[in-house]
Amino acid sequence: MKAYWQLTKAQLLLFARNKNTFIWSLFLPVFMMVALGTLLGDSGGQMQLTAAVADEDHSAVSSEMVKELKKTSGLSIKEVDASLGLRQVKAGDVQLLIRLKDGLGKRVAQVKAKERAGSAELIQIYVDQSNPAASQIGTQVIQQWLNEYNQKLVHFQPAVKAKKIHVQSRPLEYIDFLVPGILSLMIMSNNLNGVAATIASWRERGILRRMQGTPLRASTFIAGQITARILLNGLQALAVLLVAYFIYDVHVYGSWIGLIAFILLGTLTFMAIGFIIASLSRTPESAAPIAGLVSFPMIFVGGIFFPVRDLPGILQPLVKAIPIGYLTDALRGIMNEGAGILQLWVPAAVLSAWLIVSFAVAAWSFRWDVK
Amino acid sequence: MIRVHKLVKEYEGKRVVDSVSFNVDEGEVFGLLGPNGAGKTTTMEMMEGLRTPDSGSITIDGLDGIRQREQVKGIIGVQLQSTALFDHLKVREILQLYGSFYPRMQSLEALLTSFDLKEKESDLVKHLSGGQRQRLAIALAVVHDPKVIFLDEPTTGLDPKARRGLWDIILRLKQEGRTVFLSTHYMEEAEQLCDRVAIMDSGTIIDLNTPAGLIRQLASDSVVEFMMEDVDEKELRELEGIKEIRLGDGFEVCLLTDDLRMTLRRLIPLADEKGWTLQGLRTRTATLEDVFIERTGKRLRES
Hints:
- The structure holds two protein chains of two kinds.
- By secondary structure, chain A is mainly alpha-helical.
- Chain A has helices spanning 2-17, 19-42, 60-71, 82-91, 104-112, 132-153, 174-205, 207-212, 218-248, 256-280, 284-301, 316-321, 323-337, 345-365; strands at residues 49-55, 75-79, 96-100, 123-127.
- Chain A has a four-stranded mixed beta sheet, sandwiched between helices.
- Chain A is elongated and about 90 Å long.
- Chain B is α/β, with parallel strands linked by helices.
- Chain B has a six-stranded mixed beta sheet, sandwiched between helices.
- In chain B, helix 5 runs parallel beside helix 6 (160-175).
- The longest helix of chain B is centred in the middle third of the chain and has 16 residues, at 160-175.
- Chain B is elongated.
- Classes of the chains: A mainly alpha, B alpha/beta.
- Chain A binds chain B through residues 2-3, 5-7, 10, 13-14, 17-18, 205-207, 209-216, 368-369, and chain B through 48-50, 70, 73-74, 78, 80, 82-86, 88-89, 93-94, 96-98, 100-102, 124, 140.
């Protein structure tokens, strides 16, 4: 226990005294966020949803509705027929299809003339659940718009008025999308690249071998590493989230416990992969490039800067196989949509599987010395 | 204290350590002397529990050095060749860290004082000089007050002053009653420090004795050295008392003799007669280096 605390303390001191730690793990993520947030955030950078609208009613009311929809901010509208629209949703070309069904105009006219009351489902919204962020936000935007439309239609006078405080319904911007991505990137690069380079170098320089000459057990050493890195990552994540909150008003809508749980899961998974790379590489000079080779493509296919859906179809199986996309999705789900752990069981399960397998391989391949 | 029996280690079919046996007594400084690549480090690392021998046995203080290696690690202290330490830890911090690996550690203050590191306790390891760094490496080897200490070439690369400082420390460890196992390729070091010396070459122990005992075994006890051009080996060989002639690079000539007086008495007139200039003529008594060259035909280190 004494050795565990001392090793954790020593590693934290090493982090604190190493300028690279600060540059790569604090300055860089914050810089990236500010740079991308400013560049892309101001240039109309609300999260743009593209919706297909199929007007099957062809009435004055329905074409009026299409016009209104086009004015809604955050939505760009394409007019199509229903079957093409559905195909586009499935292919991910548009995020949702709004179908204005036949009889809509007639119905509105009846309501206006007070001939009928009640409501009928004459508008259908098709979404792709595999793209939860877009489908949820899209549905919300349409529902809200429809709500206002209905209220106007019946000259609804609310008895009790609530002051609207924009929390959930603040339109999501690119920065909201970006921050969880940066957290994910940070967790991966700190742990995968950081562990691989550090451990390989300690092994090469004989630092590990010197420790092997003492009664210290490998498990104690690794436990110290894990604890120190979890603390470092927690601190970095907090720094990024604070900057995001104060500069860009980015909130964590979901539970902090869920967020911390996924940060932990990601840290452990990528650390284990880092340990494997450190064991595989014969020299510290080769550890960094191997780690780079593994992590660099993950930056592009992990949905960090742009949605995974935008990637060509040929890459999709790869995206589904590697852990980074799941971590990014989960962090984004919690932060942007307030998703609970139950909704995130898929990323949780995939990351856990990755963790268990990599940890087993890491433990099996761990070596104190070079030969 | 230590018993090593028929130790063998092979790498890629080559016997790096070939059936090495010796005993080390409690409280002695035991030296393992040999050139680079002789198998010294591999032998020590097997004794330290860092490598598993292919065959043979190691007993340290009654413990089986192979099967009970984890217990052995608790009673031995090691300083590895060119020990790398965490550069960004302070002296005090790294002593505490290594101390935490053992059930109990010596008083930190006592360690800092006795290794002359008190003034440097708050310095980062990377700012230490070579000598300070090496003192720290040995301090780390004794943080837990071990019975046996392994030092692998502790003074390699140090300047003479720092080397002497380290010798004092090693002699003090012996006075404290510890057993010290030391490898070196410095003759002088072995002569000054070691109670007994094993000479190792190409994976085997070729001789084991006290330093004085090893020198006594030499057929010749004195050495005449000088430099000359166009060496006439035949003429030199006929001088009285000559046992061996060694020619170095350049013009160095080294005559090993068991009768220094007669050799010199004949050498000078011979040189006058032939018109040789004997530059830098000097004589000395034989050292472990001469023993080593005689036994192996190799120099200990290229200098």
